[in-house]
Design a protein that fits this description.
Largest sheet: 5 strands, mixed
Number of helices: 4
Shape: globular
Structural class: alpha+beta
Number of strands: 5
Order of helices and strands: HEHEEHHEE
Strand content: 25-35%
Helix content: 25-40%
Distance between the termini: 15 Å
Strand order of the largest sheet: 1-2-3-5-4
Length: 145
């Protein structure tokens, strides 16, 4: 799908989620008016955003925020999902990034990374930055082709 189509799918997911959480979650979009023409496998960003909502903001009664932003340079495109939720410790981040089977419970991020690398090669990456009680930032890095 195109990057624009992928972001449209995420917008639809978040529209439903915002309604379900009845105003407890607010979504901020920081995207340029014109996105570069880029094709990527479908359902790359939605699992990342879903994790922000379901895990990061799971106990949020109000004031939960998810920000989806976009930037690029000559080599890469960066799609950043940031939440102001519970955050996680270093061990949790390592576990999420290293899971290989669904039995381990965190298949989403590692599955997304595997699919990105099949499509883009080793230049594609996902980074996670988080601290307990300080939210989480997940960055999807895609090479400019």
């Amino acid at each position: 799908v195109t990057l624009e189509q992928e972001l449209s799918n995420v917008r639809n997911y978040l529209y439903i989620t915002e309604a379900r959480f009845e105003g407890a979650i607010h979504v901020v979009w920081e995207l340029p008016d014109a996105l570069p023409m880029l094709y990527l496998p479908p359902l790359i960003l939605q699992p990342i955003v879903e994790n922000a909502v379901l895990h990061g903001l799971a106990n949020c009664r109000s004031g939960g925020e998810v920000t989806v932003s976009f930037s690029c340079d000559k080599k890469n495109i960066y799609i950043v999902t940031e939440d102001n939720g519970e955050g996680m410790n270093h061990e949790n981040m390592e576990e999420i990034m290293s899971c290989e089977t669904e039995d381990e419970g965190h298949i989403g991020v590692s599955n997304v990374l595997r699919r990105l690398r099949l499509y883009f090669g080793k230049q594609a990456d996902i980074t996670i930055s988080s601290e307990r009680d300080c939210g989480t930032i997940v960055t999807v890095i895609l090479p400019v082709k």
